[in-house]
Amino acid sequence: MKTMKYLFIAALVTVFSTAAKAQTGTPADIDAVKKIISSKPADLDKQIKPYYKENRKNPEILTGFGRAFYEAKDTARARIYAEYALEAVKNHQFAPAFILLGDLKALADDGGAAAQYYDMAVYADPKNPDGYYKYANVYRKLSPKSAVAKLEDLRAQRPDIAVDALAGRIYYMSNDFDKALASYNKADKNLMEDRDLVDYAMAAFFKQKNQQALDIAKFGLTKKPRNAAFNRLAFFNSTDLKQYDEALMYADRLFNQSDSAKFSYYDYVYYGKALSGAKQHDKAIAMYLKALEQEDLDNKAKRAGVIKDLSDAYQQQEDYPNAIKHYEDYLNNIDKATANDIAALASLHMQHGGTLQDADAKKAAFQKADAVYADLASKYENAQEYALFMRARINAQMDPDSKLGLAKPYYEKLIELIEPRAEKDATERARIIESYRYMIAYYFIVKDDKDAAKAIAEKLIQIDPENETAKQVLSL
CA 167, 168, 172, 174: dihedral to nearest 10 degrees? Predict the structure, then answer.
């Protein structure tokens, strides 16, 4: 893990100054050496020797050779050429060579030695920001605060560099998005590198500051209109802000007008969300199906989330058979369904039943909903009253004139549970009032038992003194 960490650090470091860029020397010689290295000849040292002799007094080019070996993972030769570069300088002080040696130590999982070399780079060239930043990057896991403190030394040397942005980068890479935002907010966006603007927008996005993230992404697009990261962030945040027309514009820019864009399942999911928001449900469904085909969707929980989005899109189309089918697939893909997850399936069956004209088909849909609520009650004790209440309503819909008394056992059970409670909250009050009203109607109309109906009306009037049903029954 540590090796991967330092590789990640080395990969993310960019060059910030003209002085640092100069270390690569003459591109022709370095490019020639790179080609020799990539060909992996048996006489590698022999072929490179003329280039070494020609540049043995040029530390910049020698460091460039060492960096080429580093990139080819030939760490032994990379170190040799870094040392050659130091020997080529009278006082043996050359910041780029120290930085390369630090990178080699980081690659070898020796963070302490890497930090020492980066510190030496700072001493050799106090105005080269690479040493400060790489030193801070090594320490960011141990102490982001100490890492940022190192960057403060750079501020005095290089007021032209967005040091606060570098501090934001350290905090961002440490997953401290609050501090990352605080640091980025202090920086001048005009001085920020593209990667810092992207991280700045990402930090705001992660903290659900969607308008801020969108504004940063738009600023980035004024500089790089074909930048995939900026277009993606503008797309995502516009979607979350429910600015769907704008979101679809940025989606088109991401998918069709961005350079070197690579797409993940998440891009297709957001495209589906934006299309759903714009009421283009057919296209949204196509995007969710596309998301499910992506290779990076290799996590069962993430896959379940996409399936749920697909079900929602079918529901918005009122295509309940497909909505139910995919929702059941969603339930099969999550580790443990919550009470709300199960209740949502019952709700889909009820909505489906409400759209059906055929009596038998409607009844079948309601029966499925009833069965789901029964399952909910068996699995979650704290959902039993809710399940009872919903089953009472479903059975009342299947028996609209109450002649079969299908809802009666459920309303009776609710009364049994709620009635003894001295204090009843608003939900309990509403449920027992509905239960009393059903029982009054059942006894008065279906059973023609006025005494039983009046007895229940007496209870109802105590809870709801202005209830018209209770008043009418008691007046007879």
Answer: 20
